[in-house]
Design goal:
Na+/H+ antiporter like fold; 0% strand
Length: 324
């Protein structure tokens, strides 16, 4: 029982954060004592500072080749995953609200996971060095790619003019600068940075839980979550499973075209099929903070929050089957 609780601790904390927001939204609402509008931004900056501090840049060279593997991963992360999701949303949109559809679009353009993609690659007998390079490169590129696509989509869907310059300035302050500072500090205290990796992951997870709590608290206070019915929850569940299964099948099938070694194909599969909550949630939150009032943040984040544990469970089931 303890092992099971420890394994799913992060998901349970996310559930607890949502429930706390539902019953006690005032502290994390706008103007509440937690000052969520400021502490959320500080938390996002701290997450990327810690990512910079623990980023193993010198170990990336080993996984640089073959180049076509990384082109494949990036094309699925930022092109084919959104295309497939968009096509699937045509029949699924009747089950979802417009805000949830935006959430699925935002989910589709997020970078791959880092820790879990590398871990599942290793457990499945895949090439870990390739996974390390692909995941880190995808997450670094996300700072430029995700805001550009997200703003273009939000502007077209809402007919509201959103300043891309303002969002890039905000992201540079909240994400890029802390990431660079973390890397600079890593060069000075490399040994210490290696020893505190577990602690930084714990702190980052705690911040993500708080960001989720603040987003839902604000939505509860404004009454926007009252429309989240049982039928809508079932619609989200069906949509998540459909998107996950269809994209995973297509990614594994299309990976055969690359003529890679099996270990490299496994790495490409996990890096292309997963979506990051650790990087994705701060990115999404920063974009929504820079475009206030366009959509309800909590509703938009629901697909990402729910997709995360489902993709981990699905990857766990595949791990044993991929090992030769």
């Amino acid at each position: 029982m303890k092992t099971l609780l420890r394994k799913h601790a992060f998901t349970l904390w996310l559930v607890a954060a949502v429930l706390l927001a539902v019953y006690f939204p005032e502290p994390a609402s706008k103007g509440g004592c937690l000052r969520a509008q400021w502490t959320t931004q500080f938390g996002v900056a701290l997450i990327f500072f810690l990512q910079g501090l623990t980023l193993p840049t010198r170990s990336l060279a080993a996984g640089y080749k073959p180049k076509r593997l990384h082109v494949f991963v990036l094309s699925w992360n930022y092109l084919w995953f959104p295309v497939v999701t968009g096509l699937l949303l045509i029949p699924l949109s009747g089950l979802l609200t417009p805000e949830l559809c935006v959430g699925f679009w935002l989910l589709a353009i997020l970078p791959t996971t880092v820790a879990s993609a590398i871990a599942f690659t290793s457990l499945s007998g895949g090439d870990t060095s390739n996974a390390i390079f692909s995941t880190i490169f995808s997450n670094l590129l996300a700072v430029l790619v995700v805001p550009t696509i997200a703003v273009a989509y939000l502007a077209s869907e809402t007919a509201i003019e959103i300043s891309l310059t303002g969002i890039f300035v905000s992201l540079a302050r909240l994400l890029v600068l802390p990431l660079i500072l973390g890397q600079v500090l890593r060069q000075l205290v490399r040994a210490l940075a290696g020893r505190i990796t577990g602690l930084t992951k714990l702190v980052s997870s705690g911040i993500i839980v708080f960001i989720v709590h603040a987003a839902f608290a604000q939505s509860v206070s404004s009454g926007l979550l009252n429309e989240l019915s049982l039928a809508l929850c079932l619609g989200v569940a069906v949509s998540i499973v459909t998107v996950l299964v269809v994209t995973s099948v297509l990614i594994w099938w299309s990976g055969s075209w690359l003529r890679l070694q099996r270990a490299q194909r496994i790495a490409a599969f996990f890096c292309a099929s997963q979506k990051s909550l650790a990087s994705g949630l701060p990115l999404a939150s920063s974009i929504l903070l820079a475009a206030p009032g366009v959509v309800d943040p909590a509703m938009v984040l629901i697909p990402l929050i729910c997709f995360h544990p489902v993709q981990l469970a699905f990857a766990g089931l595949l791990t044993g089957r991929l090992v030769e």
